[in-house]
Amino acid sequence: MIARLRDHPMLTALLLALAAQLLFTIHLGQPARLVFDESHYVAAARVLLALEQPWNTEHPLLGKALIALGIAGFGDNPVGWRAASTLAGTLSVLAIYALLWLTYRRVRTAALGALLAMLNQLLFVHARTGMLEAFLGAFVMLAAAALLWALQARRPRVAAIRLGVAAILWGLAVAVKWAAIPYVAMACAVLVACAVQDRTLRTRRPGARFGGMPLTASLALLGGVSIATYLLTFAPAFFYARDPLTLARLIPFQLDMYRQQTQILAPHTYQSRWWQWPLILRPIWYFYEPDTDGVQRGVLLVGNPAIMWGGLIAVAAGLWAGARERWLALAWIASLAIWIVIPKSLGFYYYYHLSALILCAVLAGVFHRFARGRRREIDFLFVALSAVLFAWFYPILSGAALPDARGFEKWMWFDSWR
User: Rounded to an integer, what distance in angstroms lies between the CA atom of residue 226 and that of residue 175?
Assistant: First the structure.
């Protein structure tokens, strides 16, 4: 069966999507209480659904609007709060698959990255939580895949259409969280780098082009469409019953969001620094208390040690491997480096969500490069190890019932995890 799937990339993608959606949806209603920052975003989604007034204005509207759609479809209950996040998690898995398929044209490599994304644990927790990270990761990874798809176009019209799709996705990513803005800048840098390479390789043809598009036109399309998409996501705010948004206030509202996001915050129990995230030094308890049924439950945002720590070795290997692996490794480094310069007074482990997704692609690329001959099955063994660790941590990832208030201790590998 597995051998047959090698020649059926679309069928493989469908099976992965079904598996991911099932994994993210089982027992979605536990815990039945609000988890961590769900208290902010679910409340904002309720207000947005009723078009009452501005709420949680630190971030743009789209992520909260998607949570509101889940509430509208499934009710104001735990499943409704988290339904949209499960779809975003599945789309993240498919985006990793598409990105790797477009890079390597090999189902095994693409499926490996998708499976690691499902098992990396950060995606699993966020795909079952009514917060913004799952939506941010889905749109950024889909946009990256669409950008690569555009770069592979052969004709100007096809390139323009594909780049337009990527631009819409970049705009939607920024409309979830401004943390996507550096990735849009990276996308522009990729266009410039590809154009320079094209000009170097095709000296007979004037100008820098991909798919027949001039560099200036491609940058204008990416920037113009993404900005327009972003601004359009504020449309619901114009219909608030109290203090509705106006065209005159649209730009000042962005400045107000910037002030809120750069304000100095009081110290937090779970704050951490960027260099601690890859090492899993300070995970976050999203939930640890008796649920509505009196049962003790816990949800710990903690990465899969095999993937997180093994991924660091893969990044190092990728830097001196082939060009494709080097690009993936550099993307991971850039995704972490942006938190050195982003003006945030506090950092939290959930900021590592996007980097963790990229890390799965790095691992898949490095295995593609080196898992050959006698080492051919090492990628399968790595997935098996990751699955075993995922199963071990599953009770405190999924909010399963624990025996008592001290039931968490067997999973605490380090004191900093408490």
Answer: 10
Q: What is the pLDDT of residues 268-316, one digit of tens each?
A: 889 999 999 999 999 999 999 999 999 999 999 999 999 999 999 999 9
Q: What are phi and psi of 206, to 5 degrees?
A: -70, 150
Note the pLDDT tens digit of each residue in 386-412: 999 999 999 999 999 999 888 899 999
Which DSSP category does 36 fall into? T
Locate 125 and state its tokens.
């927790």
Q: Which residues pair with 401 in a beta bridge?
A: 297
Q: How confident is the model at residue 207 (pLDDT cuts 50, 70, 90)?
A: very low
Which residue do the tokens 């522009």 mark? 188
DSSP states of 307-373: HHHHHHHHHHHHHTS-HHHHHHHHHHHHHHHHHHHS--S---GGGGHHHHHHHHHHHHHHHHHH--G
* 283 contacts 303 by C-beta, under 8 angstroms: yes
Q: Is 296 left (phi over 0), alpha (psi -120 to 50) or beta?
A: beta
DSSP run (H or E) holding 288: strand 284-290
The pTM of this model reads 0.94
Q: State the burial class of residue 198 (Cβ atoms within 10 Å of its Cβ: 0-12, 13-18, 19+).
A: middle
Q: Which pLDDT value is given to residue 204? A: 42
Position 208 scores a pLDDT of: 43
Residue 371 has a pLDDT of 77
Token pair for residue 146? 């669409």
